[in-house]
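Reviewers of the previous submission asked for a worked example of the structure-prediction workflow described in the proposal, so we include one complete record here. The input consisted solely of the amino acid sequence. No template or homolog information was supplied to the procedure at any stage.
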Amino acid sequence: MQIVTAEDIRASFINCSKGEAERIWVPRDLAERPWGHLDFLGWRDPGAPQRNYVVTERDGALVGVALRSAPGVPARVGMCSLCLTTHPGDGVSLMTAHKAGESGRRGNSVGIPICTDLGCSLYVRQKKQPMLGGRLNETLSIDEQIRRVRHNVLGFIASVEA
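From that input alone, the workflow returned the following structure tokens.
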């Protein structure tokens, strides 16, 4: 990803109103993020940890979705659907997003299990290791795994738009 600003991020959300997007807490450390290693920018709101956000590039533009972590009992082991990293306990969370447009206004949503810390890009690149659990031994190269993460993120965003 390229470096982005808080204004760019707020303008990218497809499943919330402009007013809601303006109230989203955006990390203050954007300049220090490892942009060259990110397929998407993901973060949790420190004041409301059930609120999560994912922003990525698609066709030269930013697109973002607001997510909610589902409350519940942590699984013994969970696997992220974006990067296929396994984590014990609450290391993977079911995150849901209101669908965009009229469907979302009617209350429809989609969900996906994702690394709770949203560190998928760093796990795939072996820049970050899960505390327990791990990565599958794969025959895909790291570049192919990176392409898969990008494909999975964009696929989820497409399901929010559908």
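The first strand starts at residue 41 and ends at 45. We consider this example representative of the routine output the project will generate in years two and three.
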